[in-house]
Specification:
single chain; about 130 residues; mainly beta; seven-stranded mixed β-sheet; four-stranded antiparallel β-sheet; 11 strands; globular
Length: about 130
């Protein structure tokens, strides 16, 4: 049995920062491309960032480019999403997802990722 779990969400004021974590048990994340997605009520799911298998390529949606950063820590079997300069429109449930052997990555389509975590709530509000 494998597990993929997001953590690090919470309430933050506009302009603040959060770091989300995507941790795996039962498999090695280095072999998997990881995508971060978010969904707000009444909105379509949005792919916001992803990192290729073994970390050779990254992609960011225009809505978060320059504010968010994705990274791997293979020793901890964890992928992070550092979120800075947060805006109220960033409020959503954030999900991570994994797909093995995805080395070429120019976008983050949800249909390419088949293992999903349970999500973590991020709320940006005064």
């Amino acid at each position: 049995q494998s597990q993929l779990v997001e953590s690090g969400g919470g309430l933050v004021q506009p302009g603040g920062s959060l770091r989300l974590s995507c941790s795996a048990s039962g498999f090695t994340l280095d072999y998997y491309a990881i995508g971060w997605f978010r969904q707000a009520p009444g909105k379509e799911r949005e792919g916001i960032s992803c990192i290729s298998t073994r970390g050779g390529a990254t992609h960011y949606a225009d809505s978060v480019k320059g504010r968010f950063a994705i990274s791997r820590d293979n020793a901890k079997n964890t992928v992070y999403l550092q979120m800075n300069s947060l805006k109220p429109e960033d409020t959503a449930v954030y999900y991570c997802a994994a797909e093995p052997n995805l080395f070429i990555l120019t976008s983050c389509p949800g249909e390419d990722f088949h293992s999903w975590g349970q999500g973590t709530q991020v709320t940006v509000s005064s």
